[in-house]
Amino acid sequence: MALALTRRQQEIYDYLKEHLWEFPHPPTLDELCTALGLSSKGSLHKQIQALIEAGLVAPMNNRRRGIRLAEEDAELPDENALPMMGYIAAGRPIEAIDHQETVQVPDFLRTSKSCYVLQVRGGSMIEEGIMDGDHIVIEQRDSARNGEIVVALVDGSEATLKRIEQKQGAVILHPANSTMEAMTYSPDQVQIQGILVGQMRRYH
Amino acid sequence: MALALTRRQQEIYDYLKEHLWEFPHPPTLDELCTALGLSSKGSLHKQIQALIEAGLVAPMNNRRRGIRLAEEDAELPDENALPMMGYIAAGRPIEAIDHQETVQVPDFLRTSKSCYVLQVRGGSMIEEGIMDGDHIVIEQRDSARNGEIVVALVDGSEATLKRIEQKQGAVILHPANSTMEAMTYSPDQVQIQGILVGQMRRYH
DNA sequence: TACAATAGAACAGTGATAGAACTTAAGGAT
DNA sequence: ATCCTTAAGTTCTATCACTGTTCTATTGTA
């Protein structure tokens, strides 16, 4: 696999990364040759083939104008990182962050399902041991079992992190902070966005 | 194997460690010669060969521009894992586990110093948001600043996780659970084993 | 004296290129 | 539909400059 590139291969790859988008169609080997100052497409083909074997260029099996860069999903700068979606504070919508960010999450703090990370604002869950500033790991889901702690959207605008209790025709959200009271809603007022599966806090 | 390096070999190895990354491509022997002030690539080759036999440089079998430092990244399994040392419960010694175990810890929950992981038993820190079963990350240290949460060994036998306050001739350990009281000790009764830098909890 | 370090020449293998021949794919023309 | 033409991708060999390798001789040093 990850063979070391020769100097020329690196040059050609750099050129492709920088100029490939400029071609209206993916270029032919001949066009690339003139662009690179070569006069033999056979030579260029050999170099391209090396890049394909290195996984940097998508293989083009006899297809015309088939030179494309390989999708670089192979980049794994952080193996187990989850997206940091924003901040959650009781009574307000989730405050999304614009710039994409990720947070490292150990395997045992997440599930095999799709998960994401929020940061807690305020102390509405302080008696559950979830404090201002904590990072919480949420499994994306639209339903919950009684007793689970859920990220719920109430009336389409207020996000909360609370323990859920679902009865016939009613949904009760229990805060863990004794200075706040449980609230009862009708099921169509409450939209579950995920359930709490992990929590992290730093002290330094 | 570990042959003793001559002075010149050590010099060359040090130079490679420091400057090899500066070359856009691995350098040729001639380039290295001018960089090192030599005029014969044959001489340099002999030195490099010695470094290869010492296992410090990756062998380059006739390959061009093949000079690379030997990779010694044998730590693939669990890049960021810390040792799980055992269980801590207020009032008892730390209960070590016999079989070696590790826990994944994200970078931002640890420090650059030596760290390890304990699991909490009991609720002595419940008002600090540290609950029964939580994993805590400890930085190994034998002193602390006031206000930090420390793993302390009292009278050589009782381990606790408490907020520390150090005065003239006295050490006060504050539990965060209001049903328990702060205790005052003399400094030689209290041995600091580390300070709390991170905490993790799973809900599933 | 023995060993390390260097210079320099001669040798050998690699990497890059050109060029030609071959194969495949696409699109008309019959 | 079948065949043909053409453009483009593929394979092959030969060549050449560059670079790693080997060897010997020389110098300096403990």
From TrEMBL, chains A, B:
Q: Which residues form a coiled coil?
A: none
GO molecular function terms noted in the UniProt entry = DNA binding; serine-type endopeptidase activity
What residues does the LexA repressor DNA-binding domain cover?
4-66
Active site residues of this protein: 124, 162
Q: Which CDD domains match?
A: S24_LexA-like (cd06529)
Record bears the keyword DNA-binding: yes
Protein family membership: Belongs to the peptidase S24 family.
- Subunit record text: Homodimer.
Name of the protein in question: LexA repressor
**Biological source species:** Solemya velesiana gill symbiont
